[in-house]
Amino acid sequence: MRGKFLSAALVALMLASTSVGAWAKPTVSLVLTGFVIGKDAKGAETATPIADTTVTPGKVIRYVITATNKGDQDAQKLVPIGLVPDGTAYEPASATVKDASRVEYSLDKGKSWSAKPTVAVHTPTGDVVKPADPTTYTRVRWIADKPLPPKGVVIYTYEVVVK
């Protein structure tokens, strides 16, 4: 079960990098790594590479997407996508980035996106639109508000909990 979750997320990342590589001058490399997050005896956070541990229910996996522009021109419209693998649930509010990107989520494996996904709930008095439970998200993506400059690096992270 070690590589299952990293492999599934890598597929989505590869799809995102395919669209980025279409530009001739910027050359964007996307690298996905996964870590099982825990605590040591003193309560400090630990991060063990996913390949070096057994993943069991309740474990938190932090995915890190590192985007590097190895080209000589700005990379425009960078949109990395992270997969929430089957058998896991997105950890609410865990998507981070240290640039001016916006975060959006999908409930339907990337067919539609929203910063605040909603669902229609049927009630005896009629349908009601409610915020979706973050644990039902299937994808997370970041939309860069500014270009990634040549030799620039940006790191995106998100977490899932193994069911």
Could you characterize the architecture of this molecule?
With 163 residues, the protein is mainly β. It has one domain (2-101, 143-162). Helices cover 12% and strands 41% of the residues. It is built from 1 helix and 11 strands, in the order H-E-E-E-E-E-E-E-E-E-E-E. Strands 1, 2, 3, 5, 6 and 11 form a 6-stranded antiparallel sheet that branches. Strands 4-10-7 form a 3-stranded antiparallel sheet. Strand 8 (118-123) and strand 9 form a beta hairpin. The chain is flat.
Q: Mind telling me the C-alpha Rg? A: 17 Å
Principal-axis shape: flat
SSE class: mainly beta
Strand residue content: 35-45%
Q: What is the H/E string? A: HEEEEEEEEEEE
Count of DSSP strands? 11
Query: What ranges have pLDDT less than 50 throughout 5 or more consecutive residues?
Result: 10-23
- Average pLDDT taken over every residue: 88
Tally the helices: what do you get? 1
**Biggest sheet overview:** 6 strands, antiparallel
Task: Give the helix level as a range of percent.
Answer: 10-25%
Distance between the termini: 13 Å
Q: How many structurally independent domains?
A: 1
